[in-house]
């Protein structure tokens, strides 16, 4: 039977509508997550400044060490169930399988909670030998005991965030984790400062912030999926969840290890000052990178749902559009670092200007990472966690090997080069894996527009810089940066927006008009 033309048109309209809803959902969730990250980074900076001033270097170091123990314990007991919850919840919700959803929640929350309680009891009982034998400072004993009480709440907040994101809801985790938690901590630090802040107060305040987050997330989760139902009504598949979670968890631990080991190697093989300079250069590059990670986080449940539904074409469109958006947002930051590395680093002090070359190389590394798209997220959310584990083993082996060779000879420049080579190698492998397994690529012809716009903006700004040198004047740098962004945006507009870009822009303008009308 031949399908009628009107049926074909209706089918295409439905597919287009589905893709638009998914794309808007990813963009909205990514925007919400990015806004939350920006807000919490500002509040955390203020809180860190107050604590450092009130406690002094030594006690603030003890505070940071205590938080590292919480992070380590929480990361160990999660076993990857936070990301497993996001994936399996998204699939079961799309299938409307309530009993399976209830079973996923029981396993994903219950197992990490049980492990964290057992681990924290051990930490409490062993606080004295750990403080004396490992850290050589018995003043850490009460701090480790406080940590043992609240580390379970830190792990619980992570799995609850994973569960809520499985509903494609990015607002609730942002409100609880990125807005309320840092604000509560800042208020409590301010109040305690009037009474005489001690280091154990600061650790206790951190723990209270985690408790508040967990309470809020449980409330939000119950709003999305009622938790008042018989425990025995659940359908559980522990083997399937563990088979996904454990490789993903090991891969995540390797990523964390790789990020920490580079700083350690710079301090051991290079200089302590180099650690600080490299950290600033790396942090600057993460300004634009936050958009990329936010889009990836928001896209995770959509990737899982589309792949499970066999919607390969929509998954490919999402892959390409998200990659283009990430590249477009990051290009102005990349170009600014290329043009004004010395001036940007001088904001942090003259001693940081020596990191200009490292900043430029790290900017290239960041561009490679965001410019190759969410290939890593696709492998993870489609169930290829063993490949993710292998990729992370390759990345950490390559990173450590290059750092050992390059840092003694070139210092932080060698560390930056190792990061660039690692990102090129690993992301190339990921792109090839996604293409081989799913026949998806992150690129299409629309990528030529932001690249052309970037070249024109770079050329005009470079010409202005050569005709009117900026020197150390940060106001000139700000003015030239404004010109750079203005030319970049204007060129993209003149070359024409893609259908996905116009759809998103129209959605934003419509919401803005509605809000103004409402007010």
Overall description:
The protein is an all-alpha fold. It has 18 helices and no strands. The longest helix has 74 residues, at 5-78. The chain has three domains: 15-236; 245-443, no CATH class; 446-519, no CATH class. The N and C termini lie far apart (55 Å). Residues 1-16 have low confidence and may be disordered.
Mind sketching the topology for me?
Blueprint lengths: L4 H74 L2 H14 L3 H28 L1 H8 L6 H25 L5 H25 L3 H26 L13 H32 L2 H37 L3 H28 L1 H6 L9 H16 L3 H7 L3 H26 L1 H27 L9 H20 L6 H22 L3 H20 L1
Helix pairs in contact: 1-3, 1-5, 1-6, 1-7, 1-9, 1-10, 1-18, 2-3, 2-5, 2-8, 2-9, 3-5, 4-5, 5-7, 6-7, 8-9, 8-14, 9-10, 9-12, 10-12, 10-16, 12-15, 13-15, 14-15, 16-17
Briefly, what is this?
The protein is mainly α. The chain is built from 18 helices and no strands. It has helices at 5-78, 81-94, 98-125, 127-134, 141-165, 171-195, 199-224, 238-269, 272-308, 312-339, 341-346, 356-371, 375-381, 385-410, 412-438, 448-467, 474-495, 499-518.
């Amino acid at each position: 039977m031949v399908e009628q033309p009107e049926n074909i048109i209706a089918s295409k309209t439905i597919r287009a509508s589905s893709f638009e809803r998914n794309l808007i959902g990813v963009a909205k969730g990514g925007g919400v997550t990015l806004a939350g990250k920006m807000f919490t980074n500002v509040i955390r900076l203020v809180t860190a400044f107050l604590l450092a001033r009130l406690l002094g270097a030594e006690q603030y170091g003890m505070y940071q060490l205590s938080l590292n123990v919480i992070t380590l314990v929480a990361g160990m007991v999660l076993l990857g169930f936070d990301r497993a919850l996001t994936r399996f919840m998204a699939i079961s919700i799309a299938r409307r399988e309530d009993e399976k959803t209830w079973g996923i929640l029981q396993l994903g929350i219950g197992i990490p909670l049980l492990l964290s309680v057992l681990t924290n009891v051990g930490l409490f009982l062993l606080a004295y030998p750990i403080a004396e034998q490992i850290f050589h400072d018995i003043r850490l004993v009460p701090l480790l005991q406080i940590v043992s009480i609240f580390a379970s709440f830190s792990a619980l907040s992570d799995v609850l965030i994973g569960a809520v994101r499985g509903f494609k809801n990015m607002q609730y985790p942002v409100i609880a984790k990125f807005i309320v938690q840092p604000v509560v901590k800042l208020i409590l630090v301010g109040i305690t400062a009037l009474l005489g802040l001690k280091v154990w107060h600061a650790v206790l305040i951190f723990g209270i912030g985690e408790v508040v987050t967990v309470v809020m997330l449980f409330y939000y989760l119950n709003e999305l999926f009622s938790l008042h139902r018989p425990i025995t009504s659940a359908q559980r598949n522990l083997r399937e969840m563990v088979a996904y979670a454990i490789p993903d968890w090991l891969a995540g631990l390797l990523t964390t290890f790789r990020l920490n080991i580079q700083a350690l190697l710079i301090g051991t093989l290079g200089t302590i000052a180099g650690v600080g300079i490299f950290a600033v250069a790396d942090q600057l590059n993460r300004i634009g990178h936050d958009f990329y990670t936010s889009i990836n986080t928001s896209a995770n449940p959509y990737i899982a749902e589309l792949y499970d539904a066999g919607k390969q074409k929509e998954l490919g469109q999402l892959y390409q559009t998200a990659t283009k958006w990430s590249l477009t947002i990051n290009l102005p930051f990349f170009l600014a670092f290329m043009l004004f590395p010395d001036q940007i680093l001088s904001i942090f002090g003259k001693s940081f200007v020596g990191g200009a070359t490292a900043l430029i190389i790290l900017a290239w590394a960041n561009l490679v990472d965001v410019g190759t798209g969410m290939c890593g997220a696709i492998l993870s959310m489609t169930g290829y966690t063993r490949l993710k584990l292998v990729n992370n083993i390759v990345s950490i082996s390559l990173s450590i090997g290059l750092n050992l060779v390059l840092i003694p000879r070139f210092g932080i420049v060698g560390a930056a080069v190792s990061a660039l080579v690692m990102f090129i190698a690993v992301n190339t492998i990921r792109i090839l894996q996604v293409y081989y397994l799913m026949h998806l690529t992150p690129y299409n012809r629309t990528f030529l527009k932001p690249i052309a716009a970037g070249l024109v903006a770079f050329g005009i700004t470079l010409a202005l810089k050569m005709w009117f040198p900026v020197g150390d004047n940060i106001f000139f740098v700000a003015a030239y940066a404004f010109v750079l962004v203005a030319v970049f945006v204007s060129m993209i507009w003149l070359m024409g927006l893609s259908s996905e870009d116009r759809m998103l822009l129209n959605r934003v303008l419509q919401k803005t008009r509605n809000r103004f009308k409402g007010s």
